[in-house]
Amino acid sequence: MDSNSLRAFLAIVDHGSFSEAAEVLHLTQPAISKRLAALEVQLGASLVDRSHRQIRLTDAGTRLLPHARRILDEIHNARVALSPDSAHVEGELQIIASHHIGLHHLPNWLRRFKREYPQVDLNLQFMDSDAAYEQMRKRNAELAFVTLSDSMEPSFNVFAQWPDPMVFVTAADHPLAALKHPTLEDLSKHPALLPDTATATYRVVSRLFLEDNLHLNPQMPTNYLETIKMMTSVGLGWSVLPLRMVDDGLRPLEIGHSVTRVLGGIGLAGRQLSNAAKALLAIVQEEELV
């Protein structure tokens, strides 16, 4: 079974388009169609239903999908096993970082990494943590630095993790800032500026309000914490932000409840890390676990 044909099949599935798959693999559309057709002939089964505008897998394509990923994972592992020893760090390293990690953690890591390993070409992507998990499932990066989920699938390995303490905040001129010891009930009377309901941060805060049988009033959800910080600083509501983001434009609120999320670096189980990925993780662990 030809690995290039399998890559073409997976690219078509992951991008939902022959043209986008061709672009990603730097092929023409006829070339990627030819690779898929060759794979179908070899397997004696149609893999993709071409009768709809949207790409759909046939039953055979659905059954092939996990095997195709595992086959390419093993090819990747073989290349890693045959690579030079760990003292030799070079090549391309594809990583994903959440927006928050990209702004507040990644610069220190990369400054040191580029100084110590100049032969590595970094390919960076920035996105929400939920999107990062999906891209990792599609093998579009070797490492992702994200907010760890309490419902994370066993198909992921956590290679580094560290706590990210958070604090309830509001603007200095917000009515809540005048209260010496505001309670959750006080907060429930004002708009909450929080990330999307699917995020770990929202779930933690929501659980506190549910336990006290209080109403949470979320407004204008966005997963970009810098935007939430700005909206909070101008008095549009209260929020919960990482402690390291709090500055003179925000007033911490002594609620009596601690909120901490966990950040970390993840990879796919069963997929070996390159020397470059191991080197970056070593730096992350040293920088964050001090």
Proportion of helical residues:
40-55%
Q: How would you characterize the largest beta sheet?
A: 8 strands, mixed
- The CA-CA distance between the termini, in Å, is 48 Å
Low-confidence stretches: none
Query: How much beta, percentage-wise?
Result: 15-25%
Q: Helix- and strand-based class?
A: alpha/beta
Succession of helices and strands: HHHEEHEHHEHEEHEHHEEEH
Report the principal-axis shape. Answer: globular
Task: Round the Cα radius of gyration to an integer and report it.
Answer: 23 Å
Q: Count every beta strand, where a strand is a DSSP E run of 2 or more residues.
A: 10
Oligomer: single chain
What does this structure look like?
With 290 residues, the protein is an alpha/beta fold. Helices cover 43% and strands 20% of the residues. It has eleven helices and ten strands. The protein has helices at 3-15, 18-24, 29-43, 59-81, 99-104, 106-116, 129-137, 184-188, 200-211, 225-233, 275-288; strands at residues 48-49, 56-57, 91-97, 120-126, 143-147, 156-170, 192-193, 238-242, 251-252, 259-268. The strands form two sheets. Strands 3, 4, 5, 6, 7, 8, 9 and 10 form an eight-stranded mixed sheet that branches. A two-stranded antiparallel sheet has the order 1-2. A hairpin with a 6-residue loop joins strand 1 and strand 2 (56-57). Helix 1 crosses helix 3 (29-43), helix 1 packs across helix 4 (59-81) and helix 6 (106-116) packs across helix 11. The longest helix is centred in the N-terminal third of the chain and has 23 residues, at 59-81. It starts with a helix and ends with a helix. 29% of the residues are buried. The mean pLDDT is 91.
